[in-house]
Structure formats: structure tokens, C-alpha cells
Amino acid sequence: MLLRLAIQKSGRLSDKSIDLLHGCGIRFSHPKGRLRAVSDNFPIEILYLRDDDIPGYVADGVADLGMVGENVVLEKGVQVEEVRRLGFGRCRLAIALPRGERYDGVSSLQGRHLATSYPRLLERFLSENGVQASIHEISGSVEIAPGIGLADGICDLVSTGSTLLSNGLKEVETILRSEAVLVANPDLSEEKRQLLERIGFRMDAVLRSKGFRYILLNAPVGAVGQIIRLLPGMRSPTVVPLADEGWVSIHSVIQDDDFWSIVDQLKEAGAEGMLVVPIEKMVM
Ligand code: ATP
Ligand code: ZN
User: Fold this and answer.
1) DSSP-based three-state secondary structure for 165
2) Is 8 in the pocket of ligand 1 (CB under 6 A)?
3) How much distance in Å is there from the Cα of 2 to the middle of ligand 1?
4) Ligand 1 atom 13: residue of nearest CA
5) How far does the centroid of ligand 1 lie from the alpha carbon of residue 12, in Å?
6) Is residue 261 classed as helix, strand or coil in its secondary structure?
7) Mean pLDDT throughout 21-32?
8) Ligand 1 pocket member 117 (CB < 6 A)
9) Does residue 16 have its Cβ closer than 6 Å to ligand 1?
10) What number is the average pLDDT over the span 15-26?
11) Do 91-178 and 212-278 share a fold?
12) In this model, does residue 233 exceed pLDDT 90?
């Protein structure tokens, strides 16, 4: 028996999905043009699909699991279980208008024509806000719609905003914040659930390590107390004696961004030879 996992065939989520699975120690090939691959070291089959099809296939049970943008899951409105947020593919679904337009809140959208690939989520946002606007569903290149006179504004995915900018648009409302999620068919067999749990456990270890670094440094014994206060670590930092008497090596875990904010204090406390290295997995 194989667990079937659908991931995006080619697009923004493909590489990160594959990296995450490899980080979980699941080996499989990614042959060009092929639709599926079976792992040789875990009972799992990978299906390569268009992202739009993934929620439906998981809901129908064609696939047991899927990795896909939460935006697509919510737009499709199908019954799947969200089992993990995956921390990549972050974006927002936003309404944008031509830069020169005046905008005084949602009421400015009244009576407008908006182009989008997300009619369902846009409709929900408009009705929750008591706004009547017409929605033109288009499947790609939404951002050019106002420029060619197809719509007054758009509702589309944005990450940096540079695409909007280069099309003369400004973001006026965020209607959803999204990232890639792992979804599961709600009726998995007990056996498949157990496999899902094994993968989930591995994913947690990989995801948890994101944003953390391992730090090693040398310090005089007398400075240990002060340095440990700066580096609380996972439980308590490791302190090992160096061959050079009176000196120790301190090992700990720090948040990625924290290093630069404490480096001066560490130096002042007497730390030397600091190494900050990446962590692949953290198992608690
Ligand atoms: P497919 O060929 O599989 O249908 P697609 O063109 O619909 O691909 P992509 O553009 O690869 O999809 O985007 C896949 C997902 O990446 C989106 O659904 C969204 O969750 C996420 N994403 C992150 N940032 C952005 C962005 N700036 N624009 C679009 N999608 C983004
Ligand atoms: Zn798509």
C-alpha cells in the first residue's frame, strides 16, 4: 500500500515541495514529463499535478495528501483536512486599482468591474462588506486587465508587489494571507493515517529548524554565566572544557535574526571564535 501525495508539477511551489520531502528523507525521482514517482525508501507515491487540481483530487481520494497554496484550497471550497502549514509560498490575495484612482475604503469598489482568478474568495469578501461589484473570471495575466480596458481593478496574488507596480496598480485591500499547506483526504484509512503521522513528525523536525542556527563559541570560564543568559538555547546550552585550561566552548541554538543583535554583547562578555551554522532538523 502506498500513500499518494500530489505536489505541483511545475511552478512556484514545486522546488520547495520537493526540498521538504527530501529534507524528510524521502527519496524519489523527478523525471521530466512523467506524472508520478514512487519512493524507494518510504511507502509513498508522488503525483505531479497542476496546483488547481490538487484540492479536488485530495477531496475525491484520488490522492491521499496534497501540498498546495491555501488560497487554492479555499477557492475550490472542497472538503479536505489541513494538516500542516508549510512555511513557504507565502503570498496575499489582494484587490488592486490603477494607481491614480481615489480609494476611500471598500465602498469605493461599489459598481466596479474586477478581474480575478479567485471569483469565490472575492465574492465572499465583497458580500461580507456589503459591496456590489461585477466579477470577471480570467485564468491568467490578471494584472494586465485594467490596462487593456477589461476591468476597473483586479483581485490577484501578490508577494512583493512589484508586478502590481510595473502594471501601474496599487494594492487597496488584502483579502487573504496564504502559504503552502499540507492537506489530507478526511477519510484516510488507519494505515494511511499512521504513514501520515510518520511524515508529519519528520516535517515538524524540518520546519522547526527553519529560522534557527547552531552557535558555537569559546569563552573564559568566568564568562559562562553571562553568556548563557544571552543564549538560552533549547534546554540549556552545552558547555565543554577546552584543552586550554580556564576556557570552555559553549554550544547553543539561536534564532536566525538574533545573532546580529547579541553579537556585541557576546564579544563584550569575552566570547571568541564564534561559529554560526545551519541546522537541518530539530527533533524535540
Ligand atoms: P499551475 O501550472 O500548477 O496551475 P499556477 O501558474 O497556477 O501553476 P504558480 O504561479 O506556480 O501557479 O503559483 C502557485 C502558488 O504559489 C499560488 O497558488 C500561491 O499559493 C503561491 N504564490 C506565492 N507567491 C505568489 C505570487 N507572487 N503570485 C502567485 N502565486 C504565488
Ligand atoms: Zn494553477
Assistant:
1) helix
2) yes
3) 28
4) 12
5) 5
6) helix
7) 90
8) no
9) no
10) 97
11) no
12) no
Among 1.10.287.1700, 3.90.79.10, 3.30.360.10, 3.30.70.120, what is the CATH number of 212-278?
3.30.70.120
Buried/exposed 98-108: b ≥16 CB within 10 Å, e otherwise: eeeeebeebeb
Amino acid at residue number 239: V
Find the 137 Cα to ligand 1 centroid distance in Å: 17
pLDDT at 141 over 80: yes
Locate all alpha helices (DSSP H) within 24-157, ordered by sequence: 54-60, 70-76, 119-128
Segment 191-208 mean pLDDT: 97
Residue nearest to atom 28 of ligand 1 (CA): 157
Using a 6 Å cutoff on CB, does residue 69 contact ligand 1?
Answer: yes
Ligand index nearest the alpha carbon of residue 142? 1
- Cell digits for 172? 487597496
Question: What tens digit of pLDDT does each residue of 169-194 get?
Answer: 999 999 999 999 999 999 999 999 99
Q: Is 167 in the pocket of ligand 1 (CB under 6 A)?
A: no
Q: What is the pTM of this model?
A: 0.90
Q: Please provide the size of the chain in residues.
A: 284
